[in-house]
Amino acid sequence: MRCALILLLLSLGVSFSHAASAGCPAVLHAQEIFVYPDLMKSHAEYGDYEIRIFDSRFCSGPRFKEPSGLEIRKAGKVIYTRTGWGFAIGYPLEEDQPPDAVKIKVGDDLTGDGVPDLLVSEWTGNAHCCYFFRVFQLGPEFKELQELPLFDADESAFVRRPDVKGLVLDTADYSAFAYFPSSFAGSPAGRVFLSFHDGKFRPDASLMRADAPRTGEIVKCAALFTPSRDWKTSQPMGMWYYATDLIYAGNETQAWAFLNAAWGGSTADKRKYLDEYRSRLKKSIYYPDLESLQKAPVSTAGQKIDWTKQCFEYLRG
User: Is the Cα dihedral 160, 166, 167, 171 positive or negative?
Assistant: First the structure.
């Protein structure tokens, strides 16, 4: 998770500490956080629904096994509860969202099916994982539609795309290459677009697919990475970013050709790291979709990527 999220949570602890005596129960008689109305930090209403977020992280001393809670009521009756480390209605950090992010309100139709929805974010509390979106229907019948694992992609947001009825989830895949090839800061994360179809938000090949690099672009880009000074101590991270972008845009064949040509380290390391990269790719939560993506046609809705410009940006990065 981004450092900003950690700092925000720490700042929440500091800012609430002065009110701890007023906001925290002196004695706890129950294990469920929902028993203590003073711990409700936010709530929202839509029709006869009420969404409540509870938090005890600012309380001193031992409290609950899980310090945060989500409670949903309909016509005053509790119909859903969940406990965890941290919940938020909508996005947890607005400043991490891309410029085209849709500002989600309770009751917005996320799926495009005409039924009002609710987006709740959940963070598990660790520095690098995990982050979830939870989507609920707030129609005549309440329903938990989907749990979307986002790992460390706290910049994930819903966006609009032409000819897509509902909203599109723009996220990054941290399930495959976290801490590869070394530190988390250098982890490649492929961009993924999910649209709602067949009852779920799923990777949308028509949005993810992009034209392949022109003939010669891969060779020229690889030739720029091969003599990199980074090979003396490690590897040029931009090489992995470029290859990952190719794969997540439906151009895996070009990605392997690029990595083979761009390698400037030892033969033994090449075999080691390319084997690990391939193995990690297969462990991605999106791997079956990525396999299908390689066979998908390029559509007018697909990504428009200038591969030469992308190459130079990663060389500078």
Answer: negative
